[in-house]
Amino acid sequence: MSKKPIPTTQAIRFLRTHNVAFEAFEYDYVEHGGTAHSAQELGVDEHCVIKTIVLQDENRNAMIVLMHGDCEISTRNMARFLGAKHIETVKPETVTKLTGYMVGGCSPFGTKQALPVYVEKTILALPEIYINGGKRGLLVKINPQDLQVLKPIAVEVAVK
After folding, report:
1. Are 112 and 60 in contact (CB under 8 A)?
2. Residue 62 has pLDDT above 50, yes or no
3. Quick one: pLDDT at residue 3?
4. Could you tell me if 57 and 82 are in contact, meaning their C-beta atoms sit under 8 angstroms apart?
C-alpha cells in the first residue's frame, strides 16, 4: 500500500527549506468546523491544535497570532501589549492578500508578506503541536520550539 504524497504548499516548502522536522496529516475539511473538527479527525487534544489568526491594529498594521484551538484571543489584551488602541481580525480576502492562504488553510509558514508573529506563551511548553500546513484539511505536527524559525514574540492573551 503506497502512501499518498504530501501536498507541496508554501508552508511545506518553508518547513523543508528551514530544516524543520514535521509530520503531515490530511483530514476531511469541514467549513466552519474549526480546530474542534480537525482535532477530532486526528484524534488529538484540541489544545494542541494551533490556530493561525491574522489581526490588524487601528493603522492596519497586520500580524499573526498563534493560539490554542480551544482558546480565544483577548484583542483588548493584545492591543494593550502592543500599545495599540484597537485590534481586530482582518477580512478573509485580506488574509489571502497578506498570506497567500485562505481562511481555514492559513499557515504562519511561508506567508506572502512577512508579518510579525505572536505566540501564546503556553504553546511553547507543549510537547508537540498541530498547525496548518498551508491548505484546508492539512495539519503538520511539529515541536513547538521549531516555531523559532518565525522569530515569534511570546504573549499572554488567551481566554478560555
Report:
1. no
2. yes
3. 64
4. yes
Tell me: the pLDDT tens digits for 82-134?
A: 999 999 999 999 999 999 999 999 999 999 999 999 999 999 999 999 999 99
Q: How far is CA 22 from the centre of its chain?
A: 15
- In the structure grid, which three cell numbers stand for residue 127, read together? 510537547
Verdict on whether the full-model pTM lies above 0.90: yes
Measured distance CA(65)–CA(61) in Å, rounded? 13
- CATH fold of 10-159 reads YbaK protein (3.90.960)
Q: For cell 488574509, what's the residue?
A: 95
Closest of 149, 115, 156, 147 to residue 50, by C-alpha: 147
Q: What Rg do the C-alpha atoms of the chain give, in angstroms? A: 15
DSSP strand E in 58-148: where?
62-68, 72-73, 87-89, 117-120, 129-132, 138-142
How far apart, in whole angstroms, are the C-alpha atoms of residue 68 and residue 36?
11
> What letter represents residue 79's amino acid?
A
Cell numbers found for residue 151? 522569530
Asked if the model's pLDDT at residue 53 lies above 80, the reply is: yes
